[in-house]
Amino acid sequence: MVGELFLSAFLGLAFERLASIDIVTFFRGGKLKDDLLKKLEIKLLSINAVFNDAEERQMRDPNVKAWLDEVKDAVYEAEDLLDEIETEVYKTKSESEFENTSSKVRNFFTNVSVNPFEKKIESRIEDVLNKLEFLANQVELLELKKGSGIGGKLSQRLQSSSLVDESSIYGRDDDKNVLTKLVLSDNGSANHPSVITIVGMGGLGKTTLVQLVYNDKRMEDHFDLKAWVCVSEEFDVRRVTRAILEAITLSNDDARDLNALQVKLAEKLMGGKFLLVLDDVWNENHSPWEVLRNPFCYGAPGSKILVTTRSERVASTMYSAEILHLKQLSEEDCWMLFAAHAFNKGDPLANPRLNVIGKKIVKKCKGLPLALKTLGSLLRTRLFLENGKVF
Ligand SMILES: Nc1ncnc2c1ncn2[C@@H]1O[C@H](COP(=O)(O)OP(=O)(O)O)[C@@H](O)[C@H]1O
Ligand SMILES: [Mg+2]
Fold first, then answer.
1. Ligand 1 within 6 A of 203 CB?
2. Choosing a second label site near 247 at 20 to 30 A (CA), which of 9, 82, 107, 177?
3. Domain spans of the chain, in order of start
C-alpha cells in the first residue's frame, strides 16, 4: 500500500523536476526531438489522474494490480532518466563554468553536432513513452475513474507572504549569509537599484531563503522601507505596481490608472533606501519590467530588489546584478526536515524498519524541501491510520 501511495507522490515530484529550468535550458536549442519531455509529462499526468481509483481497486481486481505494477516500473524508469539528465546537466554546467571564456566558442560547435548522450537519452525517453502510452490506453478498458492523484498537490502553489517560522527551517545558514551580505552591500552606483535573483526549481526553498533574509534584524536598520510582493501569475504592470504600493503603505489603493499609481509609488520611494522582494516571477519579457521599474530610480542608492524565479531567463530579463543558483539541502538537513514531519520523537529509534524506509524516501526526494515535507507528512498520516501496525 505504502509503495503506491509514495509512487503517486513521486509522480508529483517528477512533474516539478520536469518543469525544472535546468533541464529545459539544456534541451532548448532544438537538441531534443520535439518536446519529448513535455510528452512524458502529459502521459504521466494522465496516469496520475486515475491513480487513486487504481490504488483502491487493486485489492479486488488483479488486472488493476498488474496495471499498477507496470506503471510502477515505468515511473521508476522515468525517474532514473531524470536522474541521468540532471547529472548530465550539472556536469555540462560545471564544465562550461570551468572553461569560462573559451566555452562560448566551443559551445557553438557542440551545438551543431549531436551529443551522444542526447541521442541515447532520446531513445530511452521514447521507450518509456511507449510504455506509458500503452498503459494510458488501458485506463479505459480497466474503467479507471479520474480524480486527482496525490502527487498533483505538489504543484499546487500558494501565494507567499514575508512571514516564516524560523524554528522549522533546516540548513541554509551559508546561503543566508551570502545573500544577506549581498543585500547589505552598498556598492550600487547607478540610479537603478540592483537586482539580486535567486534561481531554482519549484519547492527548492527560494521563497523560504528570501524570507529568512528579509526578516533579519539588520534589514530594519539598513533600509528605510521594505516591501514583499508575491508576483506568481501574470506579470501585469498595473497589478504589480499597485501591489508594491499597497505593500509599502499597508493599505488598499483604489487608483486605476498606471500613471497615478507610479507617481504615488515614486513619492513613497523618494530618497529612501528600500528593499523590495518580488517573489516567484515568471515574466521573460523586457518591456513590462522596464515600465515597472520606472519609479524605482527615485529610491536612494543601495536600494535592492530580491527576485525569486524558476527561470534563468527571468534573471537576465530583469538585468540582475547577481544571480544565485540555490542548491539542494544537505543530506543531513534533509533527514532532519523529513523526520520532523514524518515521526513522533523516538519513532525511528523504536522501529528500525521505519528508519530504513525513511532513509529510502529521503533519498528519492533529491534534496527538495517541498518533497521532503509532503512525503514526511504522508508517512505520518499513513502510520497514524494504520495505528501502530506499521505496514
Ligand atoms: N530549509 C528548509 N527547511 C525546512 N523547510 C523548508 C526549507 N526550505 C523550504 N522549506 C519548505 O518547503 C516548501 C517549499 O519551499 P519554498 O521556499 O516555497 O520553495 P520555492 O519558493 O523554491 O518554490 C515550503 O513549505 C517551505 O516551508
Ligand atoms: Mg517560491
1. yes
2. 177
3. 2-156, 166-173+191-325, 328-391
For residue 206, the ligand 1 atom closest to its alpha carbon is: 22
State residue 245's pLDDT score. 96
pLDDT in tens, 198-208: 999 888 999 99
**What's the gap in Å between 225 CA and the centre of ligand 1?**
25
Fold of the domain spanning 166-173+191-325: Rossmann fold (3.40.50)
Q: Can you read off the three cell numbers belonging to residue 242?
A: 499597485
Write down the pLDDT at residue 34.
53
pLDDT at 93 over 70: no
| Residue 107 in this model has a pLDDT that exceeds 60 | no
Q: pLDDT class for 139, splitting at 50, 70, 90?
A: confident
Interval 3-50: pLDDT, tens: 555 666 667 677 667 666 456 555 555 556 557 777 777 788 788 778
* Atom 16 in ligand 1: residue holding the nearest Cα: 205
C-alpha 322 – ligand 1 centre gap (Å): 21
Distance 217 CA to ligand 1 centre (A): 21
